[in-house]
Amino acid sequence: MRIILILTLFTSSFAQANCEEKSSCDYTKEWSGFTRFVATYSATRNGDKTEFEYFQTENELVVNVSSGKGITTLFSINGVGTLYKNIGFTGFKTSQECYSDVGDTYAILQGYAVRALYFIGVGSEVTPETIDGKHNIQYKHKKGDSRVQINPGDHMSIGSPWSLSGSLEKKEDIAYDIHHKHTVKKKLEDLFVSGLWSNKPVNNGIADDATLNDWLICIDGKYNYEDKEPKFEPYIADTSKLKMVGQLRALSRAITENVKEPTSPPF
């Protein structure tokens, strides 16, 4: 699967943890209100790079993953489901059925944004509202693992001791360049992360008339416990007439109006 091959270099471990300490949650939240965020990862300063580009609106999240292996796209529509392009599978499935094809890809892709957002927050003394000009990024974590919130209950663990150095600069958008040293099996390793942060109005690049033929469409749903045995019921039972992205967007508006707790944007 192409997307898994792209992710193998920088996969993170996940663990359950609380969010009582600021270093665990708040630094990421300070920078989570972006509309477009780019995080480019590399193991060496001038080595092979993998770019994660995020477009976040009220009801949608688009993630484009680009590397020498090509481009893979994740497209999540609130209340409908998640679409994947260029992973080797197409067609409609329930989110349950999709798991064998995509596994934890959604959470992993969130993790690449969260890691970079956390580095920006914990390594600087500014926020998107207070930054002006250029600022240094500097941080040292000496003991234990730092658990970075991804979603409530899901955290990313960074091997310590670890440190950050680099810069953060307000231009037309906010640009950052970070050198991260972290411990893997008692050995210090390098990670270079750079990109930009913006909260300007954005178009995520997915048009209403885009065909669904090229996507794996994983339909969300809910569990029905009426007969004591949990049964998964997808929000969309009949997908035979769905041909374009615009139809899913229209369904999203209808579904979220009828679901008490619709899925919110992930960051």
Give a quick set of tags describing it:
267 residues; alpha+beta; 11-stranded mixed beta sheet; 3-stranded antiparallel beta sheet; globular
* Helical segment count: 5
> Which structural class do the helices and strands define?
alpha+beta
- The helix/strand order is HEHEEEEEEHHEEEEEEEEEH
Give the DSSP E fraction (strand runs of 2 or more residues): 35-45%
Main beta sheet = 11 strands, mixed
Detail the poorly predicted runs.
Answer: 4-20
Bulk shape: globular
Q: State the helicity in percent bands.
A: 10-25%
What is the terminal separation in angstroms?
26 Å
Strand order, biggest sheet? 7-14-6-5-4-3-2-13-12-11-8
- Strand tally is 16
Average pLDDT confidence is 86
Radius of gyration: 19 Å
